[in-house]
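Lab notes, practical 5.
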Amino acid sequence: MIHGVLIVTEQEEPILIRFYDEVDNIKQIVKQLMLYIKLRGKRVTNFIYNDFGVPYCHAVYKKFEGKYVIIISDDNESELLCLKVIDSIATSIIKIVESFDDTKLIMNIQTMHLILDNILCGGIIINYDTNRIINEFKRDTMELENKKITRFF
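Output from the prediction step:
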């Protein structure tokens, strides 16, 4: 099961944080994960098994355009599947938002949460096909636009 998804800049500034469990010390978790990532060499895996504040979990990360997409999962989730999900998240965001720039990501935070909703449901992976994610996102946004109620004051 996926316990959390984070997008963090190289300067340790979180852009998106979503946990599927109750977590008390989010700032400490981000700081610890970024410390482990920065201390790693270039020839090591993208898997962190050290203690970073979430018990019985490990982290899988990948860098995209100066930002780290990090998934926190338990031992029941495959690390390779987590990498696939990370690729799906980043690719979907880049295709929908048309950038992975800090400002664009922050301006489109609701879009990123909708993309995550099409990939994960309560921490369970439901989809990682990028084309399907994009099509479902477009369908969801069209439904939201059609449901808007116009109020007259």
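Observations recorded by the TA: Strands lie at 2-9, 14-19, 47-48, 57-64, 67-74, 120-121, 124-125. Residues 43 and 60 are 15 Å apart (CA to CA).
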